Structures are given as structure tokens and as C-alpha cells.
Amino acid sequence: xxxxxxxxxxxxxxxxxxxxxxxxxxxxxxxxxxxxxxxxxxxxxxxxxxxxxxxxxxxxxxxxxxxxxxxxxxxxxxxxxxxxxxxxxxxxxxxxxxxxxxxxxxxxxxxxxxxxxxxxxxxxxxxxxxxxxxxxxxxxxxxxxxxxxxxxxxxxxxxxxxxxxxxxxxxxxxxxxxxxxxxxxxxxxxxxxxxxxxxxxxxxxxxxxxxxxxxxxxxxxxxxxxxxxxxxxxxxxxxxxxxxxxxxxxxxxxxxxxxxxxxxxxxxxxxxxxxxxxxxxxxxxxxxxxxxxxxxxxxxxxxxxxxxxxxxxxxxxxxxxxxxxxxxxxxxxxxxxxxxxxxxxxxxxxxxxxxxx
Amino acid sequence: xxxxxxxxxxxxxxxxxxxxxxxxxxxxxxxxxxxxxxxxxxxxxxxxxxxxxxxxxxxxxxxxxxxxxxxxxxxxxxxxxxxxxxxxxxxxxxxxxxxxxxxxxxxxxxxxxxxxxxxxxxxxxxxxxxxxxxxxxxxxxxxxxxxxxxxxxxxxxxxxxxxxxxxxxxxxxxxxxxxxxxxxxxxxxxxxxxxxxxxxxxxxxxxxxxxxxxxxxxxxxxxxxxxxxxxxxxxxxxxxxxxxxxxxxxxxxxxxxxxxxxxxxxxxxxxxxxxxxxxxxxxxxxxxxxxxxxxxxxxxxxxxxxxxxxxxxxxxxxxxxxxxxxxxxxxx
Lengths: 357, 332
Hints:
The complex is a heterodimer of chains A (357) and B (332). With 357 residues, chain A is of the alpha/beta class. Chain A has 14 helices and 11 strands. Chain A has a 5-stranded parallel β-sheet with strand order 2-1-7-8-9. The longest helix of chain A has 21 residues, at 2-22. Helices cover 30% and strands 25% of the residues of chain B. Chain B is built from 9 helices and 13 strands. In chain B, the strands form 3 sheets. Chain B has a 7-stranded mixed β-sheet. In chain B, strands 1-6-4-5 form a 4-stranded mixed β-sheet. In chain B, α1 (16-30) packs parallel to α4, α3 runs parallel beside α4 and α6 (203-211) runs antiparallel to α9 (284-290). Chains A and B meet through α1 of A and β13 of B.
């Protein structure tokens, strides 16, 4: 065990030296995945990188990019009698106009969406509403849950679809153009489902991208590959998570998504509506859409004053640019979702800050 | 009367039923001549030329019984360990009970027995107490409050304000055990884990270190908020920078597994039978005689600049902040 640790340290130092040697000009890398943000902060990766290698956080946190108006729909249902809202824990504390799901006793934290089916059977006189949140990673399992509910003809189960897709978010960032990005650190978990070819579209920008794992060594190796690609002017996708990511991903998962969902325009925090950036249920399953069943109508909710979450998600600002960061906005008292979510940029920066000197 | 062995409001009324309860269930088990007098105040004779240390604690742990201990053992351990952090030798405890109507007398007996055993381990006595009863629904079975008194030599100077550059940071054993044991007791773990709370009074191991005046600068018990919170407070009081080494933290497989699955950080999990000790390196030998599982986990590296740092497994260095959000409520 000890030898492995010593080798890891030596390897990281070696990679750090190589990165410094390869850098002939400043490079800006956007890390797209919230889990990467957390992993980089936890391993203090930035302390191994030269200052000219900038790492910018992107829109990789599903809770963070979910609009307040969507979360408000869940809160409205939580206020009703005989409703149980099933959600991943992260959603509980996201503040929406002074309220949040944690204030309601009929909200249950689940670790797998399939638990909501068990809840529906356990409480036949209640309506169980699953919050269908997440990127491509969670969509297959939520689709499977919807499929199961359909097959078992459950009449007290429904989903509020809040899925988001990564490529439209990247398109929105590039179209905006205000952030200079030279390369992308691409999501590991999403790629397991979708396959690495899903990200080949980045050639059109043109942009270099590397799919990375989550260990310190994975991240450093991926950053080295990116730096080399940028120096050579190369674009396209390199898969550096071969142990889990294949070219075409998990075909069964993709089939399930195809069976249950079709593309839809969805509303992203700050960015606004993006066409084909999420899912709605196909007609066959639409009776399981909570918005349809309960006639929910989202209304626009402004961001809290001073909250920079929207800009941070687009890579335009860093948490330290936000006047509220670590002062009025802390994990105990969050103002925006970036501070609440376990994959939120502000939460990562707050928890794993680098030394002052 | 013989079947319903439960607390009733009358047990708190001050009359015969209360006297009976105290005499037969509490005092009999505590078994010392001071508390047996059942006076409203107990007279203690302080040793000459010693200073007095005092601490207070309240205990609201839920559930009352968990693997490795219970609220009674926690009450004794928590109080005496607080006294030890300033180098005081614990002498006497007060014990105030707030009982909820309907609480089972058999549970109360178990808890008082546990207090008696822990007092024995800690060489202390409960010398005075109080008993109150609240209506059903106005309290959660049992809350305990204690006050502890200890004595220390005039030249003993152990405090969280004393950490110095060059000092080493030691932990007397594996971290996070108590909080994980409580997670197990609350059925929050979706799998079997073999774990017992580390709750224990640390009087016996500390005595040789105090008797022999081993040079120790800081002793702190990392309870709520864990090692991270305890060290954060020390860096603030001593105005120093402490660097921890992630590779040196003693974490058992069970605790590590639970943390990885539940997303907890072991540095913030509470411990009820461990000390953080900050001392010069030469003191490690006597410390390790008292605490065989003691491990080096960090060092004090700067003065005049309060910061708590962690060197990660991969060699990067980052800050460790205060506990911001609770990981588990009512753990002590």
C-alpha cells in the first residue's frame, strides 16, 4: 500500500514537470463535468499546474443547470396532500424564492430512481413524483423506471422530466464566445453511457477534447494530452478513460433512452431555453409526465440578486468573482445551486480551497 | 404499579416517588458516600495549591443505546475528556437528568449502570444531581447535563493556545468511528458493517503523562466536527499553520467504506474516545506508551498565520475548512 502511494506522488510530480515543459503559451481548459470539478479540487490538482494553464469550470452540474422554475414545480407538488416527491439528495437545499424542498416532510431522498417504484407500491393512496434530473448518465435508469411503471400499469407514479444533455450546453457556450477556451476535459461518466464518438462534434469549433477518469493521475495525464494537442493545433476527441469508455457506449442504455424519450427544448439556468437540449416522454408514456398529469405550468423566476451561478456555469466567472461567495453564500446558507450541489463549482471551491500562500 | 415500570410525571414532583426513584435507581447504582447523602449541595475539599478546572456538557444523542456505548457512558467520557484537555485530573461530576414521561425504568437502570462503570474507569464520582420529568412529547426520552470539576498543578499549561512551530500533531487512534457507529444505530447504512463507538474516558492513559509532566502543548477531543474542526480551532487560537498528511490519517476499512459510499469526509466525523495531542517530537515515546495506537498525522509549520492544510495522497496541498453543514444530527 505504501509503495503505491509513493509511486503515485512521483508520477504526479513527473507529469507536472512534463506539462510545464510542453507549455509554450497560455492554455485555457474547460472541465465540463461536475465530478471532475470536485475531483480536481479534492486532489488539489491546480497546485501541480503552471499558472499559464487555466482550468475553467463548466456547466457540468445537473442540479446547478436546472432552472428555478423547474424546481418550483416540484415544490408546488410537495405542498399538496398525499404527494411524495422522490429526489436525489442534492436537490433538497436548492433555494427557490426563499423556499426549498427540505422544508417539506413528504420529500424522500432516494439513491436510485427505481426506489420510487417501491414507494408507489408502498403508498398506493399517494401520488409519487420522481424528479427526473441529470445528464446522459442518469437518463437510462430514469427511462427504465418509467418503462417499469408503464409495464406495471402504476397509476400513482409520474416523473417531472428535467434531463439535460451536454452537447447543447457546449454549443451555447461556444456560440456565446465570451470565454476563451482552448480545450475541453470531457465528462467520464456521461461518456460511459454515450461512447466517446458522441463528442466528436467538437471538431467543428475546432476544439481538442480528452475524456478523463477521476483519479489524480487520470486527470494529470489527460491535461498533459490536452496541452500537447493544443500546442500542435490538433482537434477532436481522445479517449483517456479506456477502461470504462468505448466508442459507442452502453447500447442497452441508449436503447432505453430511445424507447421512452424524445428530444425537447428545455430551460437552463441563466442560459435560457435551448432546443433539443433535454427530453420529454414519448406519447405512449406521456401519461407518466407529472407536468401533464397535474397541469403544471412553469413561470419565470429571477436569479437571486448578486448570484453569479449562471455566469459560473458558462465559464465566464469563477466563484471568487462572486461577491457573495464564502460570505453571504456558504454551504450552510446557500444562495444559489452551485454552492449546494455535491458537484457544484462553488461548493468545490469552498470545500477544497488552495492554501493562501 | 408493578407492571408499568415507566417514568410518570410524579417522578419529578419532588415528593416520595421522586425520592424513591433517586434512591433506588440512581444513588444505589452510583454507590459513593457523597451522593448517598442526597444533599442539595455536596461539599468538596480541594487539594492544596491546586487550581480548579470546570466544564459543562449536555447530551442529546439519539438513539440512547448504540453499539459500543450509550448516553450514560457518553456523558461521563465527554465530561472528563473535556477536563483532561487542560491537563486537569477529573474529580467530580454532577448529573442532571431530564426524563420524558413514559420512559422505561429498565432503560434508566441500564444507563445509570453504564454511568457507574464509566465513572470507575475514569476514577471520578458523580457527587450531586438533579431529576426533572417533562410530559410525553416534550422531550426525547432522556437528556443529560453534566458539570465536571478537576484539579491541576499550578505549572500545568496545556491549551489550544499553545501550539508552536515544530510541534508534531498526533491522534490517539482511528478516526470517525463514533459517528459511523451512530449511523449504524440509526439504520442509515444499507449494508452490514462491524463497528462499535469508540466512546471512552481517557483518564487512565492521560495520568502518566500528567504525573511525569511530559511536555505536551495541546490536548483536544475531536468530537462534533471531527479532527478538522478541532484542528481548525487550534490554528485559530494558536495563530499557527498546521499541515496534515492524508496518507498518515488512521482510518479503518469500515469507516473508509462508509465514507466513500455515503460521501462523508472522515476528517469531519466525530470521535468520542480519541485525543488530538500536539507536542514536541521527543514526547512521542511516552505518548505512545499511554496510547499504543497513537499516530503522527501532521505538524505545526508556521506561526502568526492561522491555516489548516492537507497534503493529499497525490502530494497536492489544499485547505481544510471548518465544518459547514452537519453530516449527522444529534451524535452526542
